[in-house]
Design brief:
binds succinic acid; alpha/beta; four-stranded parallel sheet; about 325 residues
Length: about 325
């Protein structure tokens, strides 16, 4: 617990580099998810952040291992904190590698009544220039702000606030590893200040999807020069309900792969064309209708996969109906 201030925030810890330890300032490797939430809150206790923080350990993992096993208890803990009248906002600490997928999944399945802020760090806690303290202090500033509600799930990294739909990790190293597309950051934050660009857009709106503990199998096929239909077929099993193509440029793929995927679409598998490039829209093409394909629009492959899983879990499997939902994201 920190401070005597009445703003009470719930901190849900899942691990990652923000809770990582290297053991020495010159060590090249480190272990993510080492520091427990109680020790972490003791560490930030002296910063004078002006909020009362109550912590809960949901997991302590490298986010490479993130998935339904952690998402289920995490979602339940957030729902519980949202229902707690005394809790003003929720902070989720998370590894940066899959942070965007968790943030987007939560964004689609939670109401926007209270701020939910996902935060991580690029350097382990004992590194020189550890960014986790600053990012965390920034997250406290955002989660304490009543104006943060109604914007969906937010991500705070490197003095910037991103919307879950837009945020993506674009660099392997360095503290400026996150960007937003198509919107860049939606706010600027320091431990002492917060500037929003624009008004809340989701006020009073319910979650787009109910929570489900069963997400259907959706695979991502990474397109490249020389990709053949056989290696694509090897990725697809009997349980596969959807395929997202991390396509070339604007969602393109070799002709043989296209033919193989048209066959999958005819068999009722949802096929989404996204792009393996960092940024840019994948728009609908005239032949998508005949092929039974869906265009991912602004979503990158890993986020398109999350949305497709939720749609399929919700019983939406017709390509035109799926396309409509992608058009609205
Ligand atoms: C992880 O994603 O858990 C490791 C990498 C990071 O947090 O930056």
């Amino acid at each position: 617990m920190t401070s005597t201030n009445s703003t009470r925030l719930t901190v849900l810890a899942t691990g990652g580099t923000i809770a990582g330890i290297a053991g020495s300032a010159i060590a090249k490797d480190y272990r993510a998810g080492e520091i427990g939430i109680d020790d972490y809150l003791e560490k930030v206790g002296g910063l004078g952040l002006g909020a009362q923080l109550s912590g809960r350990q949901i997991a302590n993992i490298d986010s490479a291992d993130m998935g339904p096993g952690v998402w289920n208890p995490l979602h339940a803990a957030i729902a519980e904190a949202m229902a707690d009248d005394g809790c003003r906002g929720i902070i989720v600490t998370h590894g940066t590698d899959t942070l965007e997928e968790t943030a987007f999944l939560l964004d689609l399945t939670l109401p926007a009544d209270k701020p939910v802020v996902v935060v991580g760090a690029m350097r382990p806690a004992d590194a020189v220039g550890y960014d986790g303290l600053r990012n965390f202090a920034n997250a406290v500033r955002v989660a304490s702000d009543p104006d943060a509600a109604g914007r969906g799930v937010l991500v705070v990294m490197g003095d910037r606030v991103f919307a879950a739909r837009d945020v993506r990790k674009v660099r392997t190293r360095g503290t400026e590893a996150f960007r937003g597309f198509p919107r860049e950051s939606i706010g600027l934050v320091t431990p002492a200040s917060l500037e929003w660009f624009g008004a809340p857009w989701r006020q009073g709106r319910a979650a787009a999807f109910g929570w489900t503990t069963e997400l259907p199998e959706v695979v991502i096929v990474y397109a490249h020069a020389g990709l053949d239909a056989e290696s694509v077929r090897r990725q697809i099993g009997d349980a596969t309900r959807g395929i997202v193509v991390a396509g070339l440029g604007e969602g393109n793929m070799p002709e043989a792969v296209r033919t193989a995927l048209v066959e999958q679409a005819r068999n009722g598998v949802a096929v989404v064309r996204a792009s393996r490039t960092d940024e840019g829209l994948v728009d609908r093409e005239p032949e998508d209708r005949d092929n039974g394909f869906i265009a991912a629009r602004a979503l990158n492959p890993q986020k398109a996969r999350v949305l497709l899983q939720l749609l399929l879990a919700d019983g939406i499997s017709d390509p035109a109906a799926i396309q409509q939902k992608f058009d609205r994201r």
